[in-house]
Amino acid sequence: MKIQFLGAHNCETAATKLVSILIDDVLALDAGGLTSSLSIEAQLNLKAVLLTHHHYDHMRDVPALGMNALFYETSVPVYATQTVKDALASHWLNGAIYASFLERPPESPRIKLTIIEPNQKFIIAGYEILPVPVKHSVPAVGYQITSSDGKTLFYTGDTGPGLAEAWPYVSPQLLITEVTAPNRYEEFGRRMLHLTPNLLKEELLAFQKAKGYLPALFLVHMNPRQEKEIEAEVEQLARELGTPMTLAQEGLVVQL
Ligand SMILES: [Zn+2]
Ligand SMILES: [Zn+2]
Q1: How close is the Cα of 38 to the center of ligand 1, in Å?
Q2: Which of the ligands is closest to the CA of residue 159?
Q3: Could you tell me the distance, in angstroms and rounded to a whole number, from the CA of residue 236 to the centre of ligand 1?
Q4: Which of 154, 173, 177, 221 has its CA 20 to 30 A from that of 205?
């Protein structure tokens, strides 16, 4: 399984992009930095865009994908919960801010959105995909992706304290989760349901207790301004727990 980090941050600059992860060139996890990272051929090659929740930084490129689909006379397969679809339809692809790509053309909408149900597995292009609810400030799911050769990753999307409630349902070899801010922002993390290294530690200890192992970790959604501070704290946490943890960067490719 090839995992390519297209965007790894929660803020966009010339050097950082919003979270988007590409699996084996065919599955995209979140759509914060998809269209600016992928050629039109690569966009048209996508078998699924899986959205975790309806915050701007995770679904921003859905309208842009729809416009490309219009001019290439095709449609883009997007998977999300009803909550995410409703947010897209009412706030964005509503015929005022942008075209109603969820409905047009009626026979084959440019954004072909399939509603997913939490905890119900489905198969796309030979991958088993399990959406699992995670704690965040709005309804959100993470995705466990299992390839036909038995490789498994779990991408949590944005999450915070209480992530451990997802552990009974997943058994990843590799965990992609978030660390938005350094430890001195713990109160913010608890209130807004994001993770700091210390908050992540609590969730990982629960994982280890339940499963008897810890997966390798890749971390995304860092605030660029505080990244050095986050990195130093994550290095210490990795030593303490004895499992590798890497802050992902735009362009990083990992083989699982
Ligand atoms: Zn969010
Ligand atoms: Zn976010």
Answers
A1: 23
A2: 1
A3: 26
A4: 221
- Encode pLDDT of 95-123 as tens digits: 999 999 999 999 999 999 999 999 999 99
Distance CA(170)–CA(172), nearest Å, equals: 6
**28 CA distance to ligand 2 middle (Å):** 16
Residue of 86, 89, 107, 114 whose CA lies nearest to 99: 89
At 180-191, the pLDDT tens digits run 999 999 999 999
Residues 6+ apart with CB under 8 A from 110: 66, 67, 69, 70, 74, 75, 76, 99, 101, 104
* Tokens coding 18: 């919003």
In whole angstroms, how large is the CA radius of gyration of the chain? Answer: 17
Nearest Cα neighbor of 64 from 37, 87, 29, 26 is 37
Distances (CA, A) of 20 to 8, 118, 133, 157, 237: 7, 21, 19, 10, 25
Q: Report d(CA 238, CA 240) in Å as an integer.
A: 5
Which residues have a beta carbon within 5 Å of ligand 2, which is an ion? 55, 57, 158
Q: How many Å lie between the centroid of ligand 1 and the Cα of residue 133?
A: 13
Phi, psi of 111 (to 5 degrees): -100, 105
pLDDT given for residue 184 in this prediction: 98
Q: Which ligand is nearest to the CA of 137?
A: 1
CATH code linked to domain 2-255: 3.60.15.10
Ligand nearest to the CA of 18: 2
Integer Cα distance of 145 and 172 in angstroms: 9
